[in-house]
Design brief:
single chain, 488 residues, alpha+beta, Nucleotidyltransferase, domain 5, 3 domains, seven-stranded antiparallel β-sheet, six-stranded mixed β-sheet, 18% strand, binds zinc ion
């Protein structure tokens, strides 16, 4: 059985590596950026050349068909066998003849692509490669050209029929297209880790691109670590330069899919909560649900770190005149910020793991979450300030990203839904009204007909209500108002 994969693309900023501080190293650095600029300034032209030749090669064969009187005759006969009084045997013969003609045209095409040579391997890609290598080999390494040629030829094949039918035309490539290279060479991945822990990718012409993870909200470092350890495989990758001259590695990671078959109709809703960082519920279970993480613990940790930070910053202001003391304090501040990030990072790992385990335990095939853009901005949700507070101090984005890739790796689908009204709607009767979330923790449905959305009735006739986060998580699990993860 073939292994199944989920492919994800990770975007990681890269810089060319500086090989020391010597004059020689500076020269090399300059020269390598020149090499890169040459590639980037010419690659889109090569891409346009390839695609127009792919198109031309098809057109050549099309013309052969168009100008063959015998083929036209056969097509005419076969278009209405009854009227043309063809016997079954004749139809069969004509079809065979047509097939032979097609094969002949294909052969003629290949001879043409080889410049008149009868035999030779893979004439299609070789012909387009010849065109671009002839023109661009001084600027673009052959490895990049080979990859580009493969990519463009195979994408072209996907829509060549549409081009022939006139449904679409060939694309026009512009400067800044991704520069493809072989991420694997002779089975070896060219992604490497140096002794100091820094990572780089080995690019043709001896270029080394240092990976810069920055704040790493998408958890890229960990994913690259997993590639290095062999847990994940990699696919065709590229480096792309943006208009503002930043360069990114577009790393395609293949995560093995566990062929566990969870119930696709059972959905876990995840609420990014106020009282607890996370609350989960299942769409077809009126009782199930679970809070994950503790707000108090999280706040305490944050407050402690914030206090330490303030103290250091205050000290810094008093040490104005540079010097050793200042440097040390700055270092301490950086260390503290690093510690803080690590702590949140670790918490997010624990939380995301719990959610996946919860889904697996309940045989749920889908996890639904609220899209973060516009999150907490519902003007009828009277919790805006709280959300703002949490958003500022918690990397929800990182958390969602972790849930997403861990779910994918487990074979669970992740969907994003519109966060609108999820905390103000009764998950039992669907009633929406302002003020049903009577406080942060409690939801009481105001629909007189509704019983389940009110909780137990007290002796004085009032209701205890239900857990507000759980109610929101339930709504999220029911929602079919799907949105794109990032779209506004
Ligand atoms: Zn209700």
């Amino acid at each position: 059985m073939a292994t199944e994969y989920t492919c994800i693309t990770r975007k990681i900023e890269v810089h060319l590596h500086k090989h020391g501080d010597s004059e020689e190293a500076a020269q090399r650095f300059k020269e390598e950026y020149r090499i890169w600029d040459d590639i980037n300034n010419n690659l889109y032209k090569a891409a346009n050349r390839i695609i127009s030749h792919c198109f031309f090669n098809d057109t050549y064969e099309y013309r052969l068909k168009l100008h063959s009187p015998r083929l036209q005759e056969i097509e005419k006969l076969l278009s209405n066998p009854k009227r043309n009084k063809l016997s079954d045997e004749e139809v069969k013969q004509l079809k065979a003849e047509r097939k032979q003609l097609f094969a002949d045209f294909k052969k003629q095409r290949h001879v043409f692509l080889r410049g008149g040579v009868e035999e030779g391997a893979n004439p299609e890609q070789n012909s387009t490669y010849k065109v671009v290598s002839n023109e661009f080999i001084d600027f673009i390494p052959s490895e990049v050209l080979t990859n580009l040629n493969q990519n463009i030829s195979s994408t072209y094949r996907e829509y060549s029929l549409d081009v022939e039918r006139g449904v679409r035309t060939i694309p026009n490539y512009k400067k800044g297209i991704p520069v493809p290279f072989s991420i694997k060479q002779k089975g070896e991945i060219v992604l490497k880790k140096r002794e100091d822990g820094s990572m780089y990718v080995r690019f043709p012409k001896g270029l080394e691109w240092d990976l810069n993870f920055g704040r790493d909200r998408s958890n890229n470092r960990e994913i690259v670590e997993r590639v290095l350890s062999g847990q994940y495989d990699v696919g065709n990758s590229s480096i792309q330069e943006t208009k503002n001259k930043k360069r990114f590695l577009l790393l395609v990671v293949k995560i093995p899919k566990q062929v566990a078959s969870f119930d696709p109709s059972r959905i876990v809703g995840v609420d990014l909560g106020i009282n607890v960082p996370l609350y989960v519920a299942i769409n077809d279970n009126e009782y199930g649900g679970m809070g994950i993480g503790s707000r108090e613990q999280f706040l305490k940790m944050r407050m402690r770190m914030a206090a330490q930070k303030r103290e250091l910053q205050r000290n810094l202001r008093h040490t104005t005149n540079g010097g050793h003391g200042r440097t040390q304090k700055l270092q301490a501040l950086n260390r503290l910020e690093g510690k803080e990030r690590n702590w949140v990072h670790l918490q997010n790992h624990i939380f995301s793991k719990s959610i996946i385990e919860y889904a697996v335990r309940n045989n749920a095939g889908v996890i639904q979450m609220e899209r973060l853009t516009g999150f907490g901005r519902d003007k009828n949700d009277e919790v805006g300030a709280d959300f703002k507070f949490l958003l500022r101090y918690w990397s929800f984005f990182e958390l969602q990203s972790m849930i997403e890739y861990k779910a994918k790796a487990t074979g669970i689908e992740v969907r994003y839904i519109n966060p609108y009204h999820t905390s103000q709607t009764c998950s039992f009767c669907g009633h929406y009204e302002k003020g049903q979330r009577i406080n942060q923790a409690t939801f009481v449905c105001k629909n007189p007909e509704c019983t389940k959305g009110k909780g137990k009735q007290r002796t004085d006739g009032t209701f205890e209500g239900i857990n507000a986060d759980w109610n929101a998580a339930r709504n999220i699990s029911f929602s079919t108002d799907f949105v794109d993860k990032k779209k506004k």
